[in-house]
């Protein structure tokens, strides 16, 4: 009897500097499994900070180097605030300039394009020119003819342009806002991608490994006013969007895939919540909490029999239909 084809999806959530938690989990898993994380997955999805990690893994950058990027460059990414931005806060301009983030990305990816990637990716963003979600992908289907020419830096900037925190991003495809607005937890998109484009009409086994960012459910205090203008919402509105998405996607993937869905994430304790509450908080306390909890989460996963299939799977070489890595037989 012929075995069903199997596809493994890695889904990396957004969360600003809390992406250090995700990067730490990936580093520990990669060290324990003894080979690049990307080799275990047939599709890597990532949003915002998770999108930067996904692009790095698909570029075959070691997970430990991606972890160092967050740890060593966090201040440069989230510290670009001149006097004007500090003075007017959230009111007229984004909290941070995006120059620091772009410089970090350029140093890491230089002029490489999506077509240079060795592994399939799906990176959500929102095209503010059209008002629609946009999903940047490697050319793993004949219809995907444009994205392979885009610079990795431009795609990373597009998925990470968090409203209020960073300015919108313009590239040759339009104006873009953070992918967290359409899918902060991209596992559901990954499942759809496999069923629609990688294995359409095929009775395939699909497993999804999702790694979160210690997302804190955005809630309102019992003493807070209900009549809230922008001055009261500020970054809390975006936090609410992504935390609500996380819980909804988690529920749907659990219902759809059962044991074939595995999530690595943890809730911050009350004493740790203040350390990691803000998406852009870069501090010694935040760094220690994110790294410590990430290491522990990875150890728990490695000892869990439900995680074992992800460590054993060897992804096949992807077929690309366009770009510099085109290898289809057609």
From TrEMBL:
Keywords associated with the record: Hydrolase, Lipid degradation, Lipid metabolism
Q: Where is this motif: DGA/G?
A: 178-180
GO terms for MF: hydrolase activity
Q: Does the keyword Metal-binding apply?
A: no
What does the record give as the active site?
48, 178
Q: Which Pfam families match?
A: Patatin
Q: What protein name applies here?
A: Patatin
Species name for this entry?
Lysobacter enzymogenes
